């Protein structure tokens, strides 16, 4: 029986090629939108204040980014918050 052996260089090349061919798992980017107005309150209220929010959650890094626009407030914005699932 004849045995074949690979050279260390050829073996290293084969292992390196397998890493290059492997595709990494792509993270999900969860995109969410919200309408900000009095009708979204519980109970609903009448207000001139309104806005929108666009949020993106990266499931790999657990990072949440957001862009919020608003108008019609009776004074300067001093705080904001996000409600979690009820």
Architecture overview:
The protein has one helix at residues 8-21; strands at 29-36, 50-58, 63-71. It is α+β, with helices and mostly antiparallel strands. It has a domain at 25-78. The chain starts with 7 loop residues before the first helix and ends in a 15-residue tail after the last strand. The relative contact order is 0.15. The model has no long low-confidence stretch (mean pLDDT 80).
Quick summary:
Helix content is 16%, strand content 30%. With 86 residues, it is an alpha+beta fold. The protein has a 3-stranded antiparallel sheet, with no helix packed on it.
Summary tags:
single chain; 86 residues; alpha+beta; 3-stranded antiparallel sheet; 1 helix; 3 strands; 30% strand
SSE topology sketch:
Elements: H1 8-21, E1 29-36, E2 50-58, E3 63-71
Antiparallel strand pairs: 1-2, 2-3
User: What overall geometry do the principal axes of the alpha carbons give?
Assistant: elongated
Biggest sheet strand order reads 1-2-3
Instruction: Indicate the proportion of strand residues.
Output: 25-35%
Distance between the termini: 70 Å
Order of helices and strands: HEEE
């Amino acid at each position: 029986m004849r045995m074949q052996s690979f050279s260390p260089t050829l073996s290293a090349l084969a292992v390196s090629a397998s890493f290059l061919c492997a595709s990494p798992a792509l993270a999900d980017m969860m995109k969410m939108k919200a309408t900000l107005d009095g009708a979204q309150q519980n109970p609903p209220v009448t207000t001139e204040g309104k806005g929108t929010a666009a949020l993106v959650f990266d499931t790999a890094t657990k990072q949440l980014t957001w862009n919020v626009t608003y108008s019609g407030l009776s004074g300067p914005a001093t705080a904001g918050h996000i409600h979690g699932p009820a």
